[in-house]
From TrEMBL:
Cross-referenced InterPro entries: AraC-bd, AraC_XylS_family_regulators, Homeodomain-like_sf, HTH-like, HTH_AraC
Key words of the record: DNA-binding, Transcription, Transcription regulation
Record Pfam families: AraC_binding (PF02311), HTH_18 (PF12833)
Protein name: AraC family transcriptional regulator
HTH araC/xylS-type domain: residues covered: 162-259
Molecular-function GO term, any one: DNA-binding transcription factor activity
Domain of life: Bacteria
Length: 271
């Protein structure tokens, strides 16, 4: 396998057709096309590729965006090979009207975009973070639109943020995709993320996670076992609950519940 590593999966996130993490040393991609946008970051080494018969390079401080239906290939530009992370995005996520702009300028030396793509990959790497990933994807696409020359629409009204909060409050356990919320509120997903963050100081996914942690705390204090709490508070499974609970409270659900159980009872009121 010559040091090759490859991991690919399809997350339950609208608009993301595939996630690919790979290391290649000698492998070279032949000329081919995709139906999807190819959003690529290089973590080690460098890549040379031809896009629409023009030569380009992909290196670590750039984000590369290859448009759908346009022929390209790929090969290592260094003897040690390369490590890459790729998102294949449905054609409508970025927009087919921007194919020409992406052919002309497929690489962006943008630290903020690079950081946001990394955050999106982390959100996609495991179940239970779908709303987080959708929010991250919306911000990535907005930044790509900025680079490709697509004008931003007018900022949404404050009422939109409050309507989204009401929707999230009604779906703490069942969950809600960003696309579903956008459809219900007749707004673009990016507008929802921007409006909510501006109004409440945190993005929608962080608000929902906080509400779920609060619900989990209440259920644990009521004596429910952690496995049942995970389901009843909206987490993917017990491991997801434990990981999130530790991040928010610095302890596990089991230890939190044990500490609550050991708390001495309140004294009886004086007669």
């Amino acid at each position: 396998m010559d040091g090759q590593r490859l991991r690919a999966w399809r997350p339950a996130v609208p608009g993301v057709a595939e996630v690919l993490h790979a290391r290649f040393v000698t492998h070279a991609y032949p000329l081919h096309t995709h139906d999807a946008w190819t959003l690529l970051v290089v973590d080690d080494g460098a890549i040379r590729y031809d896009l629409d018969r023009h030569g380009h390079g992909a290196v670590g401080d750039q984000v590369t965006l290859l448009p759908p239906h346009v022929p390209h290939d790929g090969r290592s530009a260094t003897p040690g090979g390369f490590v890459k992370r790729v998102l294949y995005l449905d054609a409508g996520v970025v927009g087919l009207d921007l194919v020409g702009a992406a052919v002309d300028h497929p690489a962006f030396a943008d630290p903020l975009l690079r950081r946001r793509v990394g955050q999106l990959h982390r959100a996609l790497d495991g179940p239970g973070e779908e709303l987080h990933a959708e929010s991250r994807l919306a911000l990535v696409v907005e930044r790509l639109h900025d680079h490709l020359g697509k004008a931003r629409p007018a900022p949404p009204p404050r009422r939109l943020a409050r309507d989204l909060r009401d929707l999230l409050d009604a779906h703490v356990t069942s969950g809600l995709t960003l696309d579903a919320a956008a459809d219900r509120l007749s707004a673009h997903p990016t507008h929802l993320v921007r409006a909510f963050t501006a109004e409440f100081g945190l993005p929608p996914h962080a608000y929902l996670v906080g509400r779920r942690v609060d619900r989990a705390r209440a259920l644990l204090l009521a004596g429910q076992p952690a496995a049942a709490v995970a389901t009843n508070a909206g987490f993917y499974d017990q491991a997801h609950l434990t990981r999130t609970f530790r991040r928010y409270l610095g302890t596990t659900p089991a230890k939190f519940a044990t500490g609550a159980a050991r708390r001495p009872p309140a004294p009886a009121p004086a007669l």
